[in-house]
Amino acid sequence: MVGIAEIKAGLESIKLAGDIAQGLGALTSKADREAKIAELSREIAAAYQSVAVAALNEATMLEENQRLKREVADLKDNRAELEKYELLEAARGVFVRSIKESARGIEPPHWACDTCYREGKIRVLHSTGKLSHTRHTVLECTGCGRGYNCGVPREIPRVQRQPNYSVFGEE
Ligand SMILES: [Zn+2]
After folding, report:
1. Which of 12, 86, 89, 104 has its CA 20 to 30 A from that of 59?
2. Predicted structure pTM score
């Protein structure tokens, strides 16, 4: 919050200090002048404190504003990244997120964890090298650890497969 109340209080203190300073010349006794000077000092100190609080509030607000702008930019980037994926039934009843062909660019075809996706994170599924009882390759999310019995993505051309892919099924 910009310190509107503090700025108002500071301005009132400055006005009071001005009024006190104007009245100083008319005072004849030393005691009265010293009392007014003490009052003047208090008003100047109050004005300074109010302005300092307002400045601190403004600095805090600017910092928060910058943080929120960065957060919004990160969320937009993350949303754009999430929109590159679509839900796919990789094997009967096994759902993964598959990168869309149109959004893939130079990345190889791959699948991502649906559980992590729903939490706003893209985590690519990696082969564990194990076969499930249905002879599908077991893929695993390195983020949440969830296993997927769904083999390798069909989109991967055979020429790009590693020699040991034959043990993962589909051969
Ligand atoms: Zn996951």
Report:
1. 12
2. 0.60
